[in-house]
Q: What sequence folds into this?
């Protein structure tokens, strides 16, 4: 599904130029205004909906998380909606991210073998090491990132503290119930008026 359309003014934000290039090529990408940056770079024009999809929330560390939610609140009209997904720590998805799960795809630089390894280094903090091996040269590049798996109560508290009300948490984007093993929590809330 795409939100982009002739009757909507849609803005897309990502701090990665590579990801923005990929987003531009998606269906409807040509009718979206793309911004290289984060929530601080969203123009102060009233919006009806702020969405974070594709597991963005796990990449936003604690130092920036509360500010991000407040930034989104500040660009929403009163009663406007914030909706985002966040990985459910109870499902412990990282335990399946091991070097056994290798896959290979064809790239412009030849076949690329990819795998990840992950360790929970503190409650709700998962250190991911993602490795990429160029098969033709046997060169391996790896990067490491700490991902945040915030719990249900923490998310509800954070969203309320950022100026939202009527916070609901679902188990998927179809508003299904949150279960212990739901891979993600989908949080939906309304911006409080000034
Ligand atoms: C798993 S990708 C998902 C990309 C895209 N949202 C999608 O659904 O296909 C996570 C994205 O979050 C982006 N990201 C990381 N920190 C961010 C932030 N503070 N604000 C917005 N996006 C961020 C990354 O650059 C990356 O493109």
A:
């Amino acid at each position: 599904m795409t939100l982009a359309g002739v009757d909507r003014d849609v803005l897309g934000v990502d701090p990665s130029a590579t990801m923005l290039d990929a987003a531009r090529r998606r269906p409807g990408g040509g009718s979206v205004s793309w911004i290289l940056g984060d929530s601080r770079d969203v123009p102060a024009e009233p919006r009806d909906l702020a969405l974070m999809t594709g597991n963005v929330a796990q990449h936003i560390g604690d130092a920036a998380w509360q500010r991000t939610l407040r930034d989104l609140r500040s660009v929403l009209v009163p009663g406007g909606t914030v909706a985002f997904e966040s990985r459910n720590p109870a499902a412990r998805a990282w335990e399946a991210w091991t070097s056994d799960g290798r896959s290979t795809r064809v790239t412009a630089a030849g076949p690329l073998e990819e795998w990840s390894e992950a360790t929970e280094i503190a409650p709700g903090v998962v250190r991911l090491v993602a490795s990429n091996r160029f098969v033709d040269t046997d060169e391996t590049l790896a990067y490491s990132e700490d991902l945040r798996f915030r719990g249900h109560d923490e998310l509800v508290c954070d969203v309320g503290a950022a100026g939202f009300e009527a916070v609901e948490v679902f188990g998927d984007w179809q508003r299904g119930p949150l279960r212990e093993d739901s891979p993600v929590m989908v949080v939906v809330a309304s911006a409080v008026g000034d």
